[in-house]
């Protein structure tokens, strides 16, 4: 697997200070969404986000690629699909399946997704809350 470290994950520090790991701060996001992983989310290779509230305000229907940044600063390149059948939803795929396997996300795990602003976001941030 090929990982990139997101540019805001490495703070500007003097040479003698070791940068701390990337930590999500809820105050950095205008929008957050908490989702309990279903069997579909962890086995089908897609994360489904219903097109209301969070997804409606954070994602654009025309966007086809999106980066997910985990709490360690790893960037996962994912695809984004909008579908209206049987109901309006967004599917995050592509790198999502590799992310689930690498992070060992299981059914019932809680994922918090954050968006830096309202409108078209090309990067979303997430962390896994183990139960």
Automatic annotation (TrEMBL):
It comes from the Eukaryota. Residues 51-130 form the TF-B3 domain. InterPro entries: B3_DNA-bd, DNA-bd_pseudobarrel_sf. The keyword Cell division does not apply. It is found in: Nucleus. Keywords: DNA-binding, Membrane, Nucleus, Transcription, Transcription regulation, Transmembrane. GO terms for cellular component: nucleus. The keyword Transcription regulation applies. GO terms for molecular function: DNA binding. Its main location: nucleus. It holds the Pfam family B3. This is Transmembrane protein, putative.
